[in-house]
Specification:
alpha+beta, 5-stranded antiparallel beta sheet, 3 helices, about 35% helix, globular
């Protein structure tokens, strides 16, 4: 069963949004820096695997970031707030759009 949660990391003022599999491993991850909700990451484990297999892992991580490795149940100090699938998809779309817009604006 897929689940969606968010957590706030006070020290860096970052919201973490996670799509989790049944065992609590991250499928997709979004990070927003406050204030202003600047997207720092919007990574997919499946895309990461594809990039690794194709030899483009460094490029993928530099654009979209990466997903956390341990299951969320092993993280100390997390206080997840549960989200609906629609809430997560909205955050995912916003983050991906921000990141893609920044990529288009960078000089070649």
């Amino acid at each position: 069963m897929t689940r969606w949660v968010r957590c706030f990391w006070d020290e860096e003022a970052i919201w973490f949004y996670f799509e989790l599999d049944t065992d609590g491993y991250v499928i997709r991850q979004v990070e927003f820096q406050e204030p202003g909700s600047k997207a720092l990451a919007a990574a997919s484990q499946a895309e990461w695997q594809e990039a690794q297999n194709a030899g483009g892992l460094t490029e993928y991580e530099s654009v979209y970031g990466l997903t956390a490795e341990p299951p969320i149940s092993e993280w100390e100090g997390h206080d997840p707030q549960w989200l609906s699938a629609n809430e997560f998809e909205s955050v995912w779309s916003t983050a991906r759009q921000q990141i893609q817009n920044r990529q288009r604006q960078q000089p070649s």
